[in-house]
Structure to design on (106 residues):
């Protein structure tokens, strides 16, 4: 098991995210061996908001293809660390795996 980092939620709650061991540098970090390694420097939503513009640009580029496909999908890996927040990563090495699918006429 990796390390657990606590991300605050905008509504006042928290969510734990498992990260790769050793990736929890910075932020408010606990002692090694603790179940929760540390607290992230940013909220969960703020971390994800950092990568939203890149995802929107990919979707916009694919949606404007001519001729338009009947369907297209994007698979993304989203990595997270206590200091960086969220970043686009290799799907197999990420904390979150996201598949977005668009169908013509939907």
């Amino acid at each position: 098991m990796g390390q657990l980092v606590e991300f605050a939620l905008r509504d006042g709650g928290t969510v734990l995210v498992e990260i790769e061991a050793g990736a929890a540098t910075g932020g408010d970090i606990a002692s090694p061996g603790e179940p929760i390694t540390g607290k992230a420097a940013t909220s969960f939503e703020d971390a994800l908001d950092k990568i939203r513009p890149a995802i929107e640009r990919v979707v916009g580029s694919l949606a404007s293809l001519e001729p338009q496909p009947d369907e297209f999908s994007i698979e993304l890996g989203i990595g997270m660390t206590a200091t960086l927040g969220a970043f686009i990563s290799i799907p197999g090495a990420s904390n979150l795996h996201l598949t977005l699918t668009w169908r013509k006429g939907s």
